[in-house]
Write a structure and sequence with these properties.
The chain is 33% helix and 25% strand. The chain has 479 residues and is an alpha/beta fold.
Length: 479
Amino acid sequence: MRSRNRASTNRTHDVIVVGGGSAGYAAARTASDAGADVAIVDQGPLGGLCILRGCMPTKAILRSAEVAALFRRAKEFGLSSVSAQADLSAIVDRKNRLVREFADYRIQQLQDPKLRLYRSRGTFLSPHEISVGDTVLSAGSFILATGSKPNEIQIPGLAQAGYFTSDTILDLRTQPGSLIVLGGGAVALELGQFFARLGTRVTIVQRGRTILTGMDDDVGHALEAALIDEGMEVVLEAQLLRVAHDETGKTVWVMKDGRERSYVGAEILQALGRQPNIEGLRLDLAEVTVDEGRIMVDGAMRTSQAHIYAVGDVNALTPIVHLAIQQGEIAGYNATHVGQPAKKIDHRLDTEVVFTDPQVAVLGLNETRAKSEGIPYLSASYLFADHGKALCLGSAQGFVKLLAATQTGEILGAQIVGPEAGELIHELTAVMYYRGTVADLSRMPHYHPTLAEIVTYPAESIVEQMGAEERDSGRAQRS
């Protein structure tokens, strides 16, 4: 425990938010709007993961790769061939300019006179006190939003060989000739495709039987086929064994199909997930329960201490920014409305987008979970390869799939693999928000030709399934 003998300043606030990223700022803003005296504790750099190392920098560099990929397809669209030579350093410069703009705006928000910003690390002294430099702060409520950091996976030889994480590779200015990507999640695939489109030979090494583990198999298979078509190598069901390195490169050894295999690359990207960033918080002194490295919370975002909340990546529930913001808003409300009915997170509309090409967007219930939980459903899919606008765009990979309640037709979930999936999913989110049905969706006017009209086709198919079941049920009753 920190010594209390030396001189220190004691201050009290209504709510103290530890971490000024997307979730933390949302919590602070919500609590402040409710009239609370709010402090934010953040040792910096200010901005949060989304702005500094996540959403914004990755989408900035992915756009460069998208343009390069289109240039290479010029002849397909009746245009003269175009040579797009990648300049990784210039791409990084553009990314940095955008990130600085985004971060400057967030810093302005954090410096709002209604908020008290402490630029220092916060360390709990007790469940009701936290030290910030030479200052001891106390509060009625605390909201923890310290984010995440790359997982530290112990693979023999990896540290000695050297590797990049999803944080450090964003500053790489020399394009590697080859890259081995460890992991098959969203970050691994986005960054892997980025380098592949710049001309790097990329190998994805994934432990699961599909990429994007946790999503339905057909989603992973569709994206895998697209990545392979672009020249990437995808190695599935590979157990990582060890890493070796010499002057020729870095070798990753795996166990696959009952025997050892090796893959050689100039560099390695370790993209095996992230873990909550709780180092230095001294949650033991706060008497907050931690399980396998993540802070445990209930639906109201409360930890084991009713006055301490945890939001965003630090609770590892849904490491997605818009959901982290929702969690922050819920915690900010609950921290300032003690004694009133608590707001709770609703996972019915949880959405995730993977910004590969084709994009992947999933919403609500999927077939894997429906089957495991015994939830009855009807489903239907429609291929972009059969959709006129997608064919005109030259983006015909993937499909749209809808899940609906068997009796009412209420839309329960959706999966899209295809062009602009991250945009298309929002129409389905809106329909699900109002508990709309496949019949509602099929009746909504959709302009032709657009990508958006594709969502009506699986809706119509499910409506037909429901009609057939009603007819069959009627005949059975009459007989």
